[in-house]
Amino acid sequence: MTTVAAYAAPAPKAPLERTTIERREVGEFDVLIDIEFAGICHSDIHQAQEGWGEAIFPMVPGHEIAGVVSAVGEGVTKFAVGDRVGVGCMVDSCRECENCKAGREQYCVQGNVPTYNGIGKDGEPTYGGYSENVVVDENFVVRIPDGLSLDVAAPLLCAGITLYSPLKRFGAGPGKKVAIVGLGGLGHMGVKIAHALGAEVTVLSQSLRKQEDGLRLGADHYYATSDPKTFEELAGTFDLIVSTVSAPLDFNAYLSLLRTEGTLANVGAPEEPVSLNLFSVIGGGKTLAGSMIGGIAETQEMLDFCAEHGLGAEIEVISGDRINEAYERVQASDVRYRFVIDTATI
After folding, report:
1. How far apart are CA 320 and CA 246, in angstroms?
2. 148 φψ region: left (φ > 0), alpha (ψ -120 to 50), beta (else)
C-alpha cells in the first residue's frame, strides 16, 4: 500500500478536508496514474451529501480524472509509462455479463465498481480523483489524444461521455433538431457535441442569462423556459431533447416539445421522484429514455471525436483548498462551466 494526499468528505454534508489515503500496490494488470487534473461534477456533491442515498465515508470524490502513467504492471499491454490517460466514473465491472461483453460496462448486471463511493473486488472502498494518484486496471483506463490538453479533457470523462452517448444513440446529426435542457457542466458539452455532430441545436434554459455563451458554444437557438410562450412556440419541434438538469422538471411540458416519435433522454438525476402523465408519451408515440455515461470503448470514441473537433470543456482551474467554495458555487450555478482541480495543489 502507498500513502497519498487527498481531499475527503469525512461525513455526510461535512466540508472536505485534506487528508491521506492508501492506494493498493500496482498489480499485474494495473496502471498507476499521477493525476494532474480532476473535474468537479455535480454528482460529487450529491454523493458527498448523501443526496442519492447512503454513502461510504470518508469519501474522496472525483470521477473526471486526467493524468500521466507513472508505472504499469507486468501484464499491461495497452499503456506505457508517460502515456496521457483518463479515468471516468467506473474502475471495474464483472466483465462476464451480457452488457459487459457488449461494451456497456456502465450497465453491468452485477453493478459496475464506481471510481469512488464503491467497493472494489478486493473488498476495499474506492477513492476518486481528488488525490495525487490512482491505481486502475488497464481495461478501465482510456487514452487522452494529444490534441486535448489534460485540464480541458478531465471533464470529458463524465460530462463529455454522458452527453455523447445519448446524442449518438438517438441519432443527433444533420437534419435533426436537438434541444439541450440546461447550460451547465453537462449541458455545455452537449451543445458542443451536438453541434459537431451536425444537428441544429437549441438550448432550453431557465433564463437568457447565458444566451451569448450558448450561441458561442455552438447553439443555433436559445430560449428561456421561464417564459410560457417558449412552450407554445416550440411545440412539436424537436427530434431529440436531452435533459441535463438535476432538478425535477415538468416532463409533460417538455414532452410536448417533441415531434411525433421523438425522444426525451434524461441524464440529469434529481434526488426526488418526478410525476408524469402517460398520455404525454402515448400521444405522439414518444419515448422517455434514460442514459448513464458510456462504456469504455464509447468513452474512447468520444475522446477521439472531441480531439478531432477541438472540443474541450470550458473550465475554471482551482486549487485543492478551494474545493468547498467550488461546491457552493456549483450549487448556486456560479461556474462556467466546470471546476477542475489542479491536483499539484493537493
Report:
1. 25
2. beta
